[in-house]
Amino acid sequence: MIYFDHAATGMPKSEGVINAVASAMRYCGNPGRGIYELSAAGDRALFECRNALAKHFGTTPENCILTKNTTEALNMAVMGYINNQKEKIKVICSGYDHNAVTRILHSAKIQNKIDIVYFESDLFDDKKTVESFKNTLTDDVSLALLTHASNVCGRIFPVKALTEIAKSKGITVITDIAQTAGNADIKAGVHGDILCLPGHKGFYGPAGTGAMVISKDFTFPLAPFSYGGTGILSIDKNMPEMLPERFEAGSLNAPAYAGLCRAIKESDQKDKKLTEKVFKYLLGELKNMKNITVIGAPESGTEALWMPIILFNIWGYDSEEAAEMLARENIAVRGGLHCSPQAHRTLGTLKTGGVRISIGRGNTMVHAKALIDTLARKVTC
Question: What is the CATH number of the domain that holds 301?
Fold first, then answer.
């Protein structure tokens, strides 16, 4: 299998990650539920994962809330903020948000908890994006939801500049870094007050892991997202005020987070030059192929503003049919709307969807040429 679906999950997982999970399965008990060694081993696994996240994102271990994915982290952050408000609030967001953002906001809107305003993220001009954000950012906006990079076309947006503007006005910033975590230099506080991320994509950690990472300077209280046992203060009917226990009800998957810890440490040491080379090659070849239209892609020389993701369509093929055709050739890509109809609406591909290639550290020029040869044989002859 030639795998070009790293935006969905990073593959393959390293032997180090697999071994870390397997070892923790043998030696970790339920964290925080006892003073015996098995429980203590589980505690250590969780702390080491929090510590790795804290070092990577520039915050404190207790501010790294462990979740099962980005979606859960976004629900915790967004609904934690909204549910702590006494009155209806206004939220600003972009036209490239994933359903993990838009469905949360839709639910809050129909409950009459929020109003939503959108700013325009320009694919080719960061200055226009910043100006649109400034012009849309009225005095009654209290929460900004930012997408660091589109999971559909890969464009990286100027979140650092947007965060600085929002914070200067006292606006809380929650940032979806699902596509950039593990692939870009991101710091809590600089790129958002709260960062929501997966463990299984850019970090190449186990599925079912993620985090809500809170800046050490962020002090606004958030309402708990779920309720239950935390291993501490059991007599209290309320969730603890302290972090991370306030947001971590129930037993955590210590083996998975042991794997994520190892994945973060490995990710910090990986060379991404080959991924960039494969991306530039595929982008150039696809733009020059008959019967193929590349959508929302960088112009020559601006590739650094994009994650290694390419969206295209093939004349005469539905996007999901095209993905199925490539799967029969043992090439994994993704067709359809990619759980992000908002981004496809903005790109003008809501009716057609698109075929997405997402390149990762396991890909080589041999893989890239095999994909181009397959497309040349199947659709451009």
Answer: 3.90.1150.10
What is the identity of the amino acid at 119? Answer: F
Per-residue pLDDT band at 381 (split at 50, 70, 90): low
Instruction: Provide the token pair at 18.
Output: 């697999």
Q: Do 37 and 31 contact (CB within 8 A), yes or no?
A: no
- 124 contacts 135 by C-beta, under 8 angstroms: no
Per-residue pLDDT at 348 exceeds 80: yes
Q: Count how many domains the chain has.
A: 2
Q: Which residues are CB-neighbours of 82 under 8 A, at least 6 positions away?
A: 89, 108, 113, 114, 143
Question: Hey, is 149 helix, strand or coil?
Answer: strand
Q: Express each pLDDT in 171-208 by its tens digit.
A: 999 999 999 999 999 999 999 999 999 999 999 999 99
Whether residue 263 has pLDDT greater than 80: yes
Q: Which domain holds residue 367?
A: 271-379
Question: Counting Cβ atoms within 10 Å, is residue 184 exposed (0-12), middle (13-18) or buried (19+)?
Answer: middle
Residues 67 and 208 placed together within one structural domain of the fold:
yes
Chosen domain end from 267, 283, 310: 267
- Same structural domain for residues 141 and 221? yes
Exposed/middle/buried for residue 221 (C-beta within 10 Å: 0-12, 13-18, 19+): exposed
Pairing of strands 331-332, 2-3: parallel
Please give the structure tokens belonging to residue 212.
Answer: 């809500």
Q: From CA 126, how far away is CA 299, in angstroms rounded?
A: 14
User: What average pLDDT is seen over the chain?
Assistant: 94
Q: What is the pLDDT of residue 29?
A: 78
How would you classify the pairing of strands 114-118 and 141-147? unpaired
Rounded CA-CA distance 68/176 in Å is 15
Residues 233 and 360 in one domain: no
d(CA 332, CA 318): 16
SS3 of residue 80 by DSSP: helix
Which pTM value belongs to this model? 0.95
Give one DSSP letter per residue of 321-339, joined into a string: HHHHHHHHTTEE-EEE-TT
Least confident range from 34-38, 84-88, 193-197: namely 34-38
